[in-house]
Amino acid sequence: xxxxxxxxxxxxxxxxxxxxxxxxxxxxxxxxxxxxxxxxxxxxxxxxxxxxxxxxxxxxxxxxxxxxxxxxxxxxxxxxxxxxxxxxxxxxxxxxxxxxxxxxxxxxxxxxxxxxxxxxxxxxxxxxxxxxxxxxxxxxxxxxxxxxxxxxxxxxxxxxxxxxxxxxxxxxxxxxxxxxxxxxxxxxxxxxxxxxxxxxxxxxxxxxxxxxxxxxxxxxxxxxxxxxxxxxxxxxxxxxxxxxxxxxxxxxxxxxxxxxxxxxxxxxxxxxxxxxxxxxxxxxxxxxxxxxxxxxxxxxxxxxxxxxxxxxxxxxxxxxxxxxxxxxxxxxxxxxxxxxxxxxxxxxxxxxxxxxxxxxxxxxxxxxxxxxxxxxxxxxxxxxxxxxxxxxxxxx
Amino acid sequence: xxxxxxxxxxxxxxxxxxxxxxxxxxxxxxxxxxxxxxxxxxxxxxxxxxxxxxxxxxxxxxxxxxxxxxxxxxxxxxxxxxxxxxxxxxxxxxxxxxxxxxxxxxxxxxxxxxxxxxxxxxxxxxxxxxxxxxxxxxxxxxxxxxxxxxxxxxxxxxxxxxxxxxxxxxxxxxxxxxxxxxxxxxxxxxxxxxxxxxxxxxxxxxxxxxxxxxxxxxxxxxxxxxxxxxxxxxxxxxxxxxxxxxxxxxxxxxxxxxxxxxxxxxxxxxxxxxxxxxxxxxxxxxxxxxxxxxxxxxxxxxxxxxxxxxxxxxxxxxxxxxxxxxxxxxxxxxxxxxxxxxxxxxxxxxxxxxxxxxxxxxxxxxxxxxxxxxxxxxxxxxxxxxxxxxxxxxxxxxxxxxxx
Lengths: 396, 404
Hints:
The complex is a heterodimer of chains A (396) and B (404).
Chain A: H1 3-16, H2 18-54, E1 60-65, E2 78-79, H3 85-91, E3 97-112, E4 115-124, H4 128-131, E5 136-139, E6 153-156, H5 158-165, E7 174-177, E8 180-188, E9 193-194, E10 197-198, E11 202-206, H6 207-214, E12 221-226, H7 232-247, E13 252-256, H8 257-300, H9 302-310, H10 315-348, H11 358-385, H12 388-393
Parallel strand pairs in A: 4-11, 6-8
Antiparallel strand pairs in A: 1-12, 1-13, 3-4, 3-7, 3-12, 5-8, 6-11, 7-8, 9-10
Helix pairs in contact in A: 1-10, 2-8, 2-10, 2-11, 8-10, 8-11, 10-11
Chain B: H1 3-16, H2 18-54, E1 60-65, H3 87-92, E2 99-114, E3 122-130, H4 134-137, E4 142-145, E5 159-162, H5 164-171, E6 180-183, E7 186-194, E8 208-212, H6 213-219, E9 227-232, H7 238-251, E10 259-263, H8 264-307, H9 309-317, H10 322-358, H11 370-395, H12 398-403
Parallel strand pairs in B: 3-8, 5-7
Antiparallel strand pairs in B: 1-9, 1-10, 2-3, 2-6, 2-9, 4-7, 5-8, 6-7
């Protein structure tokens, strides 16, 4: 049998039983479709989350008081050995450090005129705008004052400004925070939420004043932004050495953005492949469908097979014909599923984070073909084993 | 045709095509099993969280200082404010009716050393300053020794209760009760050791030390409480008590309401909601495989109809109505779906049983609705997908069908 004839034979076999083939293809298509959609969804979520985390740039190191054994609660807990403003100031002198932002968080009542509101209060320092990629709607950020003795300036989050001043101008007005007056010098542009913290419902004051306001001696976190040309490992070693020299023992935790992202990415990748894996179940059922249909086909075409064998066709050729038919069915199914999935990704992708993934789609298609071949093995072997004489004699 | 005959007839037809029946039933079984197993995983996670929470004692309120007015966001968990919650605040709350236990908590980290043995061992752990009330509230039991003294909220005494893991790290297998430890240089006597207990919501209580709240206040040089934990009476109204607490606290905070009260029930119910939603969506995704099985049922029904044209013709010629023919083919599909579904449920529960034996700690269990839902989806698939092929069979003209 020539190659061309074989192709023609398989094609005829698929087309002759149109409904049947279409339904087998549909089964595989649904399976591949769900793999494609779930995988795209997983990847979309992954990229969305990673983007959330890298919006502040990737060259960040965060230092918190307390050791890692405290489950990251370190910054919330009281401590005997604080991470002080002086520590943060000292870290500024390290090589490659671009900015050091001391951070203290809290909440409290802020007042302006007759209006008041409970809101988040962040104690920070100049450079915060660049470090956290914040932009201003108007005014300016905190000036680069002496950290020990800063001027009482405050920058309002977008929502707070709106609540207290509506459409009016906020710059130059006084804001009362915990019995102290701050001069408003700027308003941030809307930024949205980060990890549940509303970055618009917040005010920024100098870190030292924040510590005084909350009556604390320890910063919650020190963020270090370093320049290009060094590695996160090298810089965290430097920080480690300097803080060890200052504190005498390791009572702080250094976390690099790379470490955090690596952990996060691992979790998200597992989620993504688990989602794709769920779709594979449908593919498995589709595979059983192909096996079933091929068995019926072999039974129906027993006479034909007997004739072919009597005319001298070998076991192998016959075997190959059936396996190829099965592979063709699932290839068609896979292609339909990918087309439908692609359509949905393009249309729905406007609203939901879906990411088209050529590599995974390729894998899905190959899985479909492999499943097709596997599904064909058993029926094809049955067909090849048929005794030509008995097969010819059989009534359909 | 009597119903019994109908059932027997379709069953016999299935028996004649054993292999194909088996394969179709198998595909349905895969779908049903995966629905049951995956929802069981989700349900297991939900149960795990629920039991973790309820082991903390039910009816718990958590008071923290600080408040933000925009609702829907994260509560101010960092708890730093210009006006702190103090031990006095927590003592005042005893006046609120319907409260069973109140435990003020100061939390910090500190270096703990075993100062009494010749080998000096030290460890950085979380120090909880509290009162004896924290034991019933967090469901802690003592393995050895005594609790904190009852005066813990008024008097600083150098006494400590160790978590079991911390005890092991500091003292090994030696007796710890009555020995001295150093917490950041200050001497404390070990009064008791907590009974062995697993993690509680990510917080490893085995690796902690509990000291009187006033001692913690001195140690960390702070008045600020990290949290106040409140256990309510069984029949107390949560909403009323919340209002009472806010009223009482703001009276002593110059009329300002600057605290946030979380109730454990509300945290639990929102977690519960999320996990239930997850379970349902995972179940629905795996139900897609039942759809694929349905397509297969349709395919097989079509083939069966085309193979039995002559028989259909004969039946119709003998007076069988279209409805009877339809019922014949639909009941065949339902038979297969039912067999597959039963087998799938059986397989799922078997796997769950084995998993339960292998991992006794994780409460993996299929939700009650999973098996009925999966079976009814499978049966509906059988019904819906065999409808059109059966209709084709019923519509066959007897003469043409007989002619073959």
